[in-house]
Structures are given as structure tokens and as C-alpha cells.
UniProtKB/TrEMBL annotation:
UniProt record, GO biological process: cellular response to iron ion starvation; reductive iron assimilation
Species name: Colletotrichum liriopes
Lineage: Eukaryota, Fungi, Dikarya, Ascomycota, Pezizomycotina
Keyword Oxidoreductase recorded: yes
Alphabetized PROSITE patterns for the sequence: MULTICOPPER_OXIDASE1
Record-stated family: Belongs to the multicopper oxidase family.
Name of the protein: Iron transport multicopper oxidase FET3
Amino acid sequence: MDRTTMAGDTVLLTLISALVRSACAATVSHDFNIGWVTANPDGAFDRPTIGINGQWPNPRIDANVGDTVLINVHNDLGNQSTSLHFHGLYMNGSTHMDGPAQVSQCAIPPGSSFTYNFTINQPGTYWYHSHTQSQYPDGLRAPLIIHDPDSPFKDQYDEEIVVSLSDWYHDQMADLIPAFMSKGNPTGAEPVPQAALMNDTQNLTVPVQPGKTYLFRLVNMAAFAGQYVWIEGHNISIVEVDGVYTEPAEASMIYISAAQRYSFLVKTRNDTMSNFAIVGSMDTSLFDTLPADLNYNVTGWLVYDASKPLSPPATLDTFAPSTT
């Protein structure tokens, strides 16, 4: 077979794959009523939080490559306009659906509605959040996952697990932002959060089975804080960063900045003798001060056996994220 024939076959296969995806494409629809709810994810106290359909945490959006996404948004905040941005998506051909208020659209006034309508052609791990004022640190954010039937890693794992990281403020942004922007803050020091969250909680448990491989999709939805992340007793193999597939890179710890995303494979152990901590630790070097009420660590667990204890993570003297 000559090179011309091989090139022609490659083009033909690509076209067939695109036609199959187009034929299988679906419309993913959601109705989002955005309004105030009460939440207390770190157990400190209740505070007003921006939820969707009367609940918080907010719903994850899942779609496949080639799908059309319809998000019907109604603003029930009462006292604020809003908009949604789908972070990391190029929005080719639909930039008016990108969401930044006063850039690609007018903000959605209280009591009004807007429909986001776009087709997704990018696989990977993303998230959506408010792009009006400072609403997403007040809770208006959640993961957005675009599944890929043609992923080069599709046959290398048994199950997907989505994990979000975030920083949590006890005060609302309406109080924090004026102080941040004032003359009384000449160095521009950002507000320091009170707590780190993992899947919007501080006691996440992830049931796993021995001898299996899991694809973790990790999203840092923080307003400010990067985090160091590791799973005790397990190495990870990074296969995607910010929606781009990578050559597999082995690591024992990663550093994930605000708004960044990683996907990595985790091979579970063959025994169920212990459960293992999933640890996130905020990068405190980013903070100008370290308040006494700062809880910069968050722990979840890989649960092999629910009858066994959830041991606290071991103490680390230094952070050393690296890949090989």
C-alpha cells in the first residue's frame, strides 16, 4: 500500500468517525432557576449561597462530543443580575454564548431568562460558573464534563470519578470585594478563604473496588487558591490537562491552580485492608496573611471497605509535585 492510499484511508476513517458522531449527537437540556439558598459545607455556620433549582451543590453538566447543549436560565436572585460562562470551551461559531456579562452578552436581569445554545466539539474536563460580579465564589459553579467516545484512553479504565476543589469564604463577596478594591488595601491583597472543600464538602468518600482503574476528573473551582493534591498509597497517571490529552505522566502529587483541570488514572490496590486519604492542601504562599480560622487542608477518602476506619492523612514536611 503506497502513502497516497494510506493517507486517503486515514481521511476516509476520519470522515466516517465524524459522520457517526454527528448521527449519534444528542441535545442535552437543563432548566436552571438560579437563586439564593442556605449552605454550610465546612460545618462552621449557615450562609447565603447561590444555588440552582433550590439546591446546592449545583448540578454537573454531562454531554458527549458533538452534542448540543441547551441551558434555560431564569434569574431568581432578586437583587443581582447574572450570567453563565462555560470555562475552557472555545465556543467556535457561538461566541455570543460564552457568558461574560457586558462582553459577549448583557447580564440576565432579576426575573428574566436567557437560553444558552451551543454545540460542543471539545472533549475533556471543564466547568461552568457565573461571569457576573463575583458570584461564583458565592457558590454559582459546577463541573462540566464532555465525554469522548474516541478517547485514546477509553479502554484503560473501568469508571470515571469527578472531584471538584474549591476555596470557601464565610463572608459573602458583596462584603469582601469592596474591601479588596478599597484604598485601605494598597497592596491588593486578595481575601483569604476560611476553608478548602472537595466536592463541596469536607468529608468526601469515594467507594472503590480493588484491582480496578479509575479515571479521576479533577477541577479546581476556586476563586483564588491553588492546591496540592495527592492520594496516599497510590500513584497517578496524568492523561489530560485543561481539555487536552497528554502522554501519560506518572506522579505522586500534583499542583492545580484556580480554574485548572486534570484527568488522571488511578489503579487501585488488590486488597481491602485499608482506606486511603485523598488530600487537598491550599497553597498558603498565595496568601498575604494566615488567619487563625484558616482551614487550608481538606481530606476525602478512597473507601475500599466501609467497615474500616477513615484514618487521617500523614503529615508532610514539604510539597513536591512532579511528573515522570
